[in-house]
Design goal:
The protein has 2 domains: 31 residues; 135 residues. Helix content is 16%, strand content 35%. Strands 1, 3, 4, 6, 8, 9, 12 and 13 form an 8-stranded antiparallel β-sheet that branches. The protein starts with a helix and ends with a strand.
């Protein structure tokens, strides 16, 4: 029996040596330097150029039809379109409306601020055919900063935001009939 036990021990030792040699050979193959393999592929680069029209006029400011009366006065239009008058001025119809604009912004990138026209700004509206006949548009108002949620302005949550601008028009006594035109600039600072 000793002979069988010794024989088994020798076979086990030989098997162990072969297994160790095999593992060493495999390790040598794994650690041996291999030739570098390179692969290539292509990709496309693109962009789109767009017109930077982030502020667009949707409607002009229109006080409608006015009867000045013999003492004159004012006509005031709110951003919501409400009309009120003072003195002998009468709002006689037409389609009074505040100027309306659409601002486009990029969320979390643009932080727009309304710059003007502001309350102290004024412009002259000139008669289209009678030089020297003017009216003053003043006390501009806007609903740009109107709040919607948690006291934050509406533009904070939107990429497109509509707002309105209006004001007060000084009408002279017996103001000459006809069409009066003037322009003002709305400015948004995108920071």
């Amino acid at each position: 029996m000793e002979k069988t036990g010794t024989s088994l021990l020798r076979k086990s030792a030989r098997t162990m040596r072969l297994a160790s040699a095999s593992l060493a050979a495999m390790a040598a193959l794994c650690l041996a330097p291999h030739g570098a393999v390179a692969e290539t592929t292509t990709t496309t680069a693109n962009t789109e150029i767009v017109i930077d029209t982030r502020l667009v006029k949707l409607a002009d400011l229109d006080f409608g039809e006015i009867i000045p009366g013999d003492t004159g006065g004012t006509i005031t239009l709110s951003p919501a379109g409400a009309v009120s008058t003072s003195g002998s001025v009468i709002s006689a119809g037409g389609n009074p409306q505040s100027a309306e604009f659409r601002m486009t912004r990029r969320l979390f990138i643009d932080f727009p601020t309304y710059v003007g026209p502001a309350g102290t700004d004024s412009i002259e509206l000139a008669h289209t055919s009678l030089p020297g006949q003017t009216m003053t548009l003043r006390d501009f108002t806007t609903d740009y900063n109107r709040t919607v949620i948690f006291g934050l302005p509406g533009y904070f949550f939107l990429t497109e935001y509509d707002f309105r601008v209006a004001g007060t028009l000084d009408v002279g006594a017996n103001q000459q009939p006809g069409t009066y035109l003037g322009t003002f600039t709305v400015t948004i600072d995108y920071n």
